[in-house]
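Weekly modeling sync, notes
Attendees: S.R. (lead), two postdocs, one rotation student

Agenda item 3: backlog of single-chain predictions. S.R. asked that every request posted to the team notebook include the full sequence so nobody has to chase files. The rotation student volunteered to paste the first one in as an example of the format we agreed on. Action items at the bottom.

Example entry:
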Amino acid sequence: MKVSSTGGVGASGASRAKPATSGGGFALPSVNAASGAASVAQTGGLAGVGSLDALLALQAMGDPLERKKRAVKRADGILDILGEVKIALLDGEVSTATLDRLTRAIRQQRESTDDPRLDGVLNEIETRAAVEMAKLEQARGG
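Predicted structure, as returned to the notebook:
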């Protein structure tokens, strides 16, 4: 591809399409034809920039299916950590590192949700993790 100029993007010129000359067809009046084409060309240039912004915004948001997949993946991660915590509590060997991972995973999930019921469940899990952390700290200190 050859680049012919380094100037900025400008409005494109008027269309060079030839009007239909058949007698029974539709014909546009020639009054203000040039100025109408120029205004359409200028507006088309601005619409292209606006559509680019809209496209970038949509890409940043992601499609609903992709967001749902990410949410399910985060939820599965939290459930896996909860399983580890459950087994560690039953064995009496829960670690602060596991509880820290659980707390971080919950905070990440909370940032991306707007469901009050889910927030309530996450709050309960985080509170329980904090209680277990306090028990560990008290056992180490006492």
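Discussion: group reviewed the output briefly. The chain has a mean pLDDT of 75.
Action items: rotation student to repeat for the remaining queue; S.R. to check formatting next week.
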